[in-house]
Amino acid sequence: MNHPVQPNALKKPLPEALTSALKSIFGGRLFTTQAMREHHGSDESSYDPMPPDAVIFAHSTDEVATAVKLCSSHDVPIIPYGAGTSLEGHVLALQGGITIDLSQMNRMIAVHAEDLTATVQAGVTRKQLNLEIKDSGLFFPIDPGADASLGGMAATRASGTNAVRYGTMRENVLALTVVTSDGRVIKTGTRAKKSSAGYDLTRIFVGSEGTLGIITEVTVRLYPQPEAISAAVCSFPNASDAVNAVIQTIQMGVPVARVEFLDENGVKAINAHDKLGLPEKPLLLFEFHGSEHGVKEQAELVQEITAEHNAIGFEWATRPEDRSRLWAARHNAYFALLQMRPGHRSITTDCCVPISRLAESILETKADCERNGMVYSIIGHVGDGNFHVLMLVDPHDASEVAKAEAINNRMVSRAIEMDGTCTGEHGVGLHKMDFLVQEHGEDAIDTMRGIKHALDPKNIMNPGKIIRW
Amino acid sequence: MNHPVQPNALKKPLPEALTSALKSIFGGRLFTTQAMREHHGSDESSYDPMPPDAVIFAHSTDEVATAVKLCSSHDVPIIPYGAGTSLEGHVLALQGGITIDLSQMNRMIAVHAEDLTATVQAGVTRKQLNLEIKDSGLFFPIDPGADASLGGMAATRASGTNAVRYGTMRENVLALTVVTSDGRVIKTGTRAKKSSAGYDLTRIFVGSEGTLGIITEVTVRLYPQPEAISAAVCSFPNASDAVNAVIQTIQMGVPVARVEFLDENGVKAINAHDKLGLPEKPLLLFEFHGSEHGVKEQAELVQEITAEHNAIGFEWATRPEDRSRLWAARHNAYFALLQMRPGHRSITTDCCVPISRLAESILETKADCERNGMVYSIIGHVGDGNFHVLMLVDPHDASEVAKAEAINNRMVSRAIEMDGTCTGEHGVGLHKMDFLVQEHGEDAIDTMRGIKHALDPKNIMNPGKIIRW
């Protein structure tokens, strides 16, 4: 796809001494094949791959530290790689270098069920974690959709559908083990639930996208599995009614666990894909966690609120199979959408606004998509003011891609004007570096740059991402 | 009091040019009187005052920026001052310089009730904020006890009794306006509820205690006032039973809004001070927020749990006057404790551990106090694993002070060994710099130091606090 990136402009050839030193340590876990390099030089963004020079699969923090020390001594870039599910070009090897794949670092280190914490290696995925702790009566709520690794989720400050109730990785990471740019190993925090002990190193690395250090272990908060769960869905005559119902739900303090918006295009796609007969109107899906009585009370209250906003066909259920049926529309949304235009790719946007501006933000973006004749759908974690437009484009049609990018630009600019953010949960990567400046201003970016220079003086940690050197 | 601090060792005389430049801007809001300087050179810690050379009262972010630029051009230290309620020597002017008092920056900038956010000048106190938003149906939950300023609370990453449900300043600050060490003004975030937009500047400044920049405006999250509130108290035969009841309550996911522990010494003090007839045993105080039915359900569940742990006399109430009566013991605890030994001062300690270690941590500390014949009480925000020992000492008795410090040292060292933190909510200031190293290790401290050097290259922002240069 046609993006204004200077591929490997600063790329230098990999020093032979480095390759052989890495080979002697990683043996068969070092790869230089084209296929492996291309795979690791691309994510789920629409960028063409930019492969690293080599890929190594690490098994321990010590191995990562050794690799970083070697790369540092040769001034060679290092890019951490988890599940490869990032969306903004986070893992592209702009300047070549070594990609450290952490997916085989998938060991549970400790589950402290009595403290509601777990410590895992960075490659453990959220599904694996939840499987491992299933019998403890606990769960880890952050659900970005993809089965991302905990290290990657921490590195991009991910969130998803449950964030409205449980927060994001920002709130749910207690501590990290990090390999710094000179190959030292630090722990950023403890298992204490709160702390005022100095600079918040944990949250400096959460969201730093591999540009300040490599996260090798993650300690997260766990939650007791709720006594009861109920789900509800309803349709609305228009997006505005749906969003206003959500705004009122949040303002009244109903502790919804999830509230997802799907526009009529998404519903149509789902109907076609799953042979459902949902009204082809904007849809809200709710999930409630609490006591038996509590989830009933929440569902009833939300039913009242949505009725005031012209909801159609409010349905709710508590049995797992009925809940799954109600939520089926959401779970398959992404794949159903791709079927709207087979052979095309999705450009997936992301922004987040103060909730009072959400209806306006969604409606203007919708109108923009319509005006430009896009094949699109809007999906939102609307309880947080966060939504995504998925636009299906022909990757070989430069003008269509440009049109989609222009819609994205306008959406993000409006979000920033509304005192919102250019990315609610996908991160900056390569794609949003200019928006980051627009959102924060040059002086705040300078502060970020100061931190980058201090913690990565050689600019070898995932260089060219988040901020310009 | 006798602390190993080198008072004003690096102090240089204030340049005349700086004084006259500040005088021309701040006029009658610049003070050099002994009384004003001493007042601003001390907090509620047990340190003797270390006065700055001058105090200015700022009225705007621009004034703070101008003062910082002037001080920076003369390499003169700057110490921000809010309500003066910090506990670890945060505001002592170790190297002299200018204290900027922000208490007159007490203007509400914006309340966005529909978004559940408020933006205030740094000098607005939490009580003022809650008074100003009372009619909006919202409240700001963080309650550290003292009527601290929002700027100060952000700077020390404060929390208190409500944190178990609502989090700390870490979770509840959305954005800050900060004057950097070279006098530039940056905004660290937006009003979006979540964001993945680059390094988390907000959380770099939250908890930085004035050492990286001066917080002049704070945007916080607000919450809908709960539909119903209920309170409960009960006594226990021993501290262990009380703490174990709390542990089980948290592990079962009961969403308590507050749960406070008061040991038998505290109860005795309260009985004497307020003429109450509470059993002179360890006490737990609960508060529940939710729907009418929800708070009833929570209270009943907690009653069951506490009964299993041998609770005595579980009482609960929903009417405001009855709740106030039940909680009276907690509200007056600090002053009642001071009356246990009139004319003495309290050394107030702070640590936080994973909750499974809380009983052990409290019991060992209690035994240590007993062994050393201290007059003391233990108060805890036990739902978070956070507690304080208040030891009443004669400030002129060096051996007594040393004994108290030794108890504190052992308590903190044990907390760190338990994978807890040297400070749950009071911060590092001057007093806990060595513990910070013990907790994080030299390499992590180096990372913090790198950030300090990057953001304050002249070491003029509250120098000598948190980490050594």
Task: Summarize the structure in short.
2 copies of one chain form a homodimer. The first copy, chain A, is α+β, with helices and mostly antiparallel strands and 469 residues long. Among the domains of chain A are: 16-101, Uridine Diphospho-n-acetylenolpyruvylglucosamine Reductase, domain 2; 108-224, Uridine Diphospho-n-acetylenolpyruvylglucosamine Reductase, domain 3, CATH 3.30.465.10; 228-336, Alpha-Beta Plaits (2-Layer Sandwich), CATH 3.30.70.2190.
Keywords, separated by commas or semicolons:
469 residues, Uridine Diphospho-n-acetylenolpyruvylglucosamine Reductase, domain 3, eight-stranded antiparallel sheet, Alpha-Beta Plaits, five-stranded antiparallel sheet, homodimer, alpha+beta, 19 strands, 17 helices, Uridine Diphospho-n-acetylenolpyruvylglucosamine Reductase, domain 2
Structure characterization notes:
2 copies of one chain form a homodimer. Chain A is of the alpha+beta class. Among the domains of chain A are: 16-101, Uridine Diphospho-n-acetylenolpyruvylglucosamine Reductase, domain 2, CATH 3.30.43.10; 108-224, Uridine Diphospho-n-acetylenolpyruvylglucosamine Reductase, domain 3 (2-Layer Sandwich), CATH 3.30.465; 228-336, Alpha-Beta Plaits. Helices cover 37% and strands 20% of the residues of chain A. The first copy, chain A, has 17 helices and 19 strands. The first copy, chain A, has helices at 16-26, 34-40, 61-73, 126-132, 150-155, 163-166, 169-172, 201-205, 239-251, 264-274, 292-308, 320-331, 333-338, 358-371, 398-417, 433-440, 442-455; strands at residues 30-31, 54-57, 78-81, 98-101, 108-112, 117-121, 138-139, 173-180, 185-187, 213-221, 223-224, 228-235, 258-262, 283-290, 312-317, 345-348, 351-352, 375-381, 386-393. In chain A, strands 12, 13, 14, 15, 16, 17, 18 and 19 form an 8-stranded antiparallel β-sheet that branches. In chain A, a hairpin with a 4-residue loop joins strand 8 (173-180) and strand 9 (185-187). In chain A, helix 9 crosses helix 11 (292-308) and helix 14 runs antiparallel to helix 15. Chain A starts with 15 loop residues before the first helix and ends in a 14-residue tail after the last helix. The relative contact order of chain A is 0.12. The mean pLDDT of chain A is 95. Chains A and B meet through strand 9, helix 8, strand 11, helix 9 and helix 11 of A and strand 9, helix 8, strand 11, helix 9 and helix 11 of B.
